[in-house]
Amino acid sequence: MATLKEMKDLAVYSAKGTAPENYTVESVNEALVDGIRELAGNYNAFMKNRYDIYEIITTAADEIVPNKVISAMSPFADVRVVGNGQKVMFKKGIGKNRAKKFLTQVGINGVYETFRLDAETFEIGTYSIGGGVTVDLQRMMDGAESLAEVMEVMTEGLTDAVFVEVQKALVASVNAVGRPAANIVSHNSFDGQKMMKLISTVKAYGAGAVIFAAPEFVAEMGADVIVPVSAGMPGVHPQDLDAIHNTGYINIFRGTPIVQIPQSFTDESNTKTWINPQFAYVLPTGKEKVVKVVLEGDSIVRDYQNRDGSMEIYLERKMGTAILAHYNWGIYQNTGITDTSESPYGV
Predict the structure, then answer these.
(1) Quick one: how many helices (H) and strands (E) in the chain?
(2) CA angle 332–334–337, rounded 5-degree value
(3) Of 167, 177, 255, 339, which is most buried with the most CB atoms under 10 A?
(4) What CA–CA distance (Å, rounded) separates 332 from 347?
(5) Per residue in 284-306, pLDDT tens?
């Protein structure tokens, strides 16, 4: 049987999709599944070894989550990873528009609030985010459920939660004081020319721009017509057609990359979404980044056993996010898309 350190190493390799010497990627995953199965081969073994299992889960999560967040958000977000109890001081950029800067971040009451930023530096407070799954211990003992799969689902859920928190702060700052009218588009459909005008405004404050949007919004963008129409054929760029064929969505709009915000449901009927699909955010890249994200400390696991014998396992991590300034990024609201979210902040 593999040692706990070996299992933790395998979890990291599995998370990265890599393999150490004498292993393949496939054999790493198989060894990880087999090792967890040995630790949780029966109910007593699981209860005895569950904290070792949770340590394996958090090791993988601490490897996956920051890397995924940094990879997806680094073009437009300043992402810092710090130890537990450590704080990060962000410095406000100095420039001709510094007097116009505001900060939107979560307040004491848990609601995102906007205020004028007068100091040259600011600190972002952190709070716990996460999610959980319910595990049927008997099904797990029978092999019908796998803790390795549970680990993957929980880690993906924690990563998605970071995206949602950033979107909360963006939506909360839609009507912030000081936002120019030129930085907001509200239309009952997607209009490529209106989006291009918004992008042009944002690009004036950075080296480029990126579109941050829910899949429902991206689907409405469709294939962008940028190729001259000839011989009666629609002017659709071949790369757009390939992207739609392979993923169902375009992934770039007239040279501007698109980052999709993960979407999911908050109810069992799959009718209420956790983010508002009407909004897309156009954020500048390069120079000073509008979005600030802090990931603090290590992930932790909590568990609760239900009366029916099932167990709820929660993966949590501390994070904080804030939106700096409002004059240098844009918002497009497509009111033709039904708002299926419940929260006043669209999540």
Answers:
(1) 8, 14
(2) 150
(3) 167
(4) 17
(5) 888 778 889 999 999 999 888 88
